[in-house]
Specification:
single chain, alpha+beta, 11-stranded antiparallel β-sheet, 4 helices
Length: 236
């Protein structure tokens, strides 16, 4: 009886080990469409040493729960994902507790999109090519128009102290997001920095949008107010 129990236990342990090895193999295989190594473009900064810079090269420095989809079909779920805005890469781990060194980079493809908690990121190729394409966060997708956000990080290098009365200023990553109106045909219209120029992007409906934004005191330089305006524009 003891031999039978021992045999069963060994079989279970062997099966669990095999499954673990299988999952690991799947994680770095074409099934998950993941590149083998993270290609950080770090401007000479060690991302791990957060004391050497301010801000973050990531949209969120922490890995968060997420899913990967291909052509609308769930490809992999319950993974740990974060967006490296500086390198414009999706870093993926099997679990939140997995070592960061085991993270892989998601292959860039317009057929694949990522959902990190509730945030959706899509990859948009440039003139049909992957090389100059990039990831955009989908802020809103309406019947006529969508609002995309490009996470841009301005990098300011470390500034050494020039005298005994000055301090060394650490490197800084500043958020400089850029918003786009995206048509159903895939045309991108970048939202300018100034409020008045933003209204011009709404084309023939800019007068209606001007009245609407003034009525509700909307600041189109703020994401929340811009989203409200775009939703209204989509309803016209």
């Amino acid at each position: 009886m003891k031999k039978i129990i021992l045999t069963v236990v060994l079989c279970v342990l062997t099966l669990n080990t095999a499954l673990a090895q299988f999952d690991t193999a799947m994680f770095v295989s074409d099934v998950f469409l993941l590149d083998n190594y993270i290609k950080r473009q770090n401007n000479g900064i060690n991302f791990k040493d957060t004391k050497t810079y301010r801000g973050t090269p990531y949209n969120n420095p922490n890995f968060l729960p997420g899913n990967i989809y291909k052509e609308g079909t769930l490809l992999a779920d319950n993974l740990a994902i974060r967006y490296n805005a500086v390198a414009d890469e999706m870093e993926v781990k099997q679990t939140l507790s997995s070592n960061d060194e085991n993270a892989r980079v998601l292959t860039k493809s317009q057929d694949i999109y990522v959902k990190i908690i509730e945030d959706i990121y899509v990859f948009v190729p440039y003139q049909g090519g992957v090389e100059n394409g990039g990831y955009f966060q989908v802020i809103f997708e309406g019947g006529q128009i969508a609002l995309y956000k490009k996470h841009v990080k301005e990098f300011i290098p470390e500034k050494k102290a020039t005298s005994s009365i000055t301090k060394t200023l650490p490197a800084v990553f500043k958020d400089k997001p850029v918003f786009y109106l995206v048509t159903k045909s895939g045309k991108f219209y970048q939202m300018p920095k100034s409020r008045s120029k933003k209204l011009k992007v709404f084309g023939e409906k800019q007068n209606q949008m001007k009245i609407f934004t003034k009525k509700y005191n909307l600041d189109l330089n703020k994401q929340k107010d811009l989203l409200t305006a775009v939703k209204y524009y989509d309803s016209l």
